[in-house]
Amino acid sequence: MKNSNASHGCSLWQDAARRLLRNRPAALSGVFLLLMVAACFILPVFPCVPNPNTIDLNAIAQGCSWQHLLGTDHLGRDMLARVLYGGRISLLVGFAATTVSLFLGLGYGMVSGYAGGRVDTWMMRAVDVLFALPFIVVVIVFSLSIEEPCREFTSWVVLHTGWNRDSVAPLLGLVPLFLAIGALGWLTLARIVRTQTLALREQEYVLAARSLGLGHCSILMRHITPNLLGPVIVYTTLAVPGIMLTESTLSFIGLGVKAPNSSWGTLIKEGADRMEIAPQLLLYPALFFCLTLLALNFLGDGLRDALDPRSAKD
Amino acid sequence: MNRLNSCCLCALLLVLFWSGCGEEEHRSSAAAAAQRGILLFGNNAEPQSLDPHKATAVADGKIISSLLEGLVRPSARESGAVHPGMAESWERNDDATEWRFHLREAFWSDGQPVTSYDFAYAFHRLLHPAFGGRYAEMLYALRGARAYNRGEIAWEDVQGVSTPDARTLLLRFENPTPHLLQMLLHYTWFPVPAHRVEELGGMLDRRSLWTDPEKWVGNGAYLLQERRMNDYLAVVPNPHYWRASEVRNRGIRFLPIVNGYTETRMFFGGKLHITNNVPPEMMEMARARAPREFCRDPYYCTIFYRLNTTRKPLDDVRVRRALSLAIDREALVSRVVHGAGKAAYGFTPPTGEYSTLEQTTAGMTQSEREAEARRLLADAGFPGGAGFPTLELMTTSRDVQRVMGECIQAMWKRVLGVQVEIRACEWTAYKAAQQNGEYDISSSSWSGDYADPATFVELWRSGAGNNCTGWGSSAFDAALDAANACSSRVERMRKFAEAEQEMLRGCPIIPLYWSERTYLRSSHVTGGWYPLLLDQHPLDAVELRQNPFAEP
Q1: Cα-Cα end-to-end distance for chain A
Q2: ipTM
Q3: Does A54 map to a domain?
């Protein structure tokens, strides 16, 4: 009993968590991200945060006050509420799309690299073909083609759950967006995973596992996946910012978030137009966005160090 | 290492930021162009077409007017005044139904003479029922033109245009047209090089390549030199132009910058001589920063929403009126447009001699209007907005339009409980959707082509090319015909006002405000630019100097 406890004490995850916590910037970043997510998703529920779409033409582009903690925008809407709601959408799209592409890329790359030979060649040529398509154009076509079914799904949800349409529609309206980005964003990850897998499957411990009679699935889960986590996690944390930027591009051409709802991308765009007149409209969303991206980068970096099974156990 | 990286990144961003703020270094671009005599002209949007028979946008018209010249040309000093152009002289009969133009000896840029046949060919092409010219109704005043355009008679039977000889053009009109000379400034009355159009695909070829820079033949002050999509369109002086020696600059670059914020910033960065528009929010800043360069001119222009009356529930006039009444125009003008306009309760901008407001609700306060709007919507079967479908408001990607859209979206939701989604389209997609009627509500603007209410009211004739709302009323068409038949100016205005009342009752559009024109004009521009109500500036008159404050 004691023995098994001791071996658990040194398990990959506990070890990683310990190393992560010791890495101060990464740990702080993680806390910051958690706070950010909490702020964006929980704070707006409280009645003290005003409705982000309430226009007050008598209070345009005002500075900070008790009523509006971060002031108001060019149509007199509360800036704090807009930044929080915008963060909700940006974070949701960023993480949801990354999750979609994570599973696709990890599975595809691992199978391709582990199978090797002709299967590998064909699977990678398919990736090459997809790579040759212009990303934005494909995302636009794809999201347009699944927009209609998604809209019906929204109506169905509203009908059957009785939720308020105003609060559900902006979030469900994003489903085509992150499905589209996620379904096309896995290509780079598949390549990274496949290259790693190619190297890993030749390792002695994989050979040993195979000669002991372990099945392919078990080998992939027990021996390949943990060794892949380092690059995958780093890539993922770096992909989230890119996806958030793609989201703002698509919102700008009218396929993502629809006005009056906003994401950080659209808020920054609106603020950038008015930076001479009211710089705070650019400052706040940009600050939130930059800090989040920076935190994601630090956290990814820390996770890579922490999760690397080859790094010395101390 | 990573911390170092992020520090470097921050430092780099700061450097970029400050270098972006420095403006004097970048002034050189406009100054250098001024030295070479090249006018850098902000032109709002990428032109849809340079073919005068296909274009409908203001941006296209500005380019076409510098490439082709009609019978008369605009004065740089006075709006609506004209100078002889291709026509050396002209005479008219007493009731202005017959005009005879004598053409001067002028040449196309390939050396061929400009003849009256080129004019007749151009009118024929625009009016040809198989060509489908959007702006054909501009020529409807010509006798027989409308019937021909509708395929009722043959071109030979059209009496409006005749060419006694190569240098004489005879125009006959259905009704008295004393304002003809102003109408002639519009590009729909310009000639096209008949020999060239025939050579490159013929009269009815809508995809003809004759407007390509390599193939271009024109009779205007400038020649098409180069066109880069979404970058610029360059023109150079035309050596064959009959006033070639009086062209004051050595070329123009039209820059299609849709975003007014970007454009204004480019102006202060020294990349432009004349901008198209300063966004309302930036007016204070622009005025403070460049008091001598900031211009605020009166403008003959209405900002309004088109309603697609062929779609439910907008086919119900009560719904349309409710949507119109729910908008607080005064708040819109004072807060969103920042006073650069006037709240519009009618369509045609009021001038000294003409003014009309929506009668039935004139004089109501805003809360009375809102109550009336709620009542109308309930009458139409949507009390409190219940059961009302989500409509789509289509705007261009221009920021002012989107901001206004968001504001009106909120007003409709607050007053009527009506849900509207905003779809911001890129300019060409917006134009196409509007002309094909693929929209619910379309954010639009219309600026007058000549100083007469007809240029606004005629827009809503049933089936007119720029109507695009699907609305039509025989009573309105008859009222227009009656107005056109008047020979007395006062009577004409009264009849047009009656016609407009009829249209406003039908409510195919929601007038929002009558806008002013706010723009920036660099001090490099030293002459040839005066405030004009119709914004028909002859760009060949614009003079440039590199150092505007030095003596010449």
Answers
A1: 23
A2: 0.71
A3: no
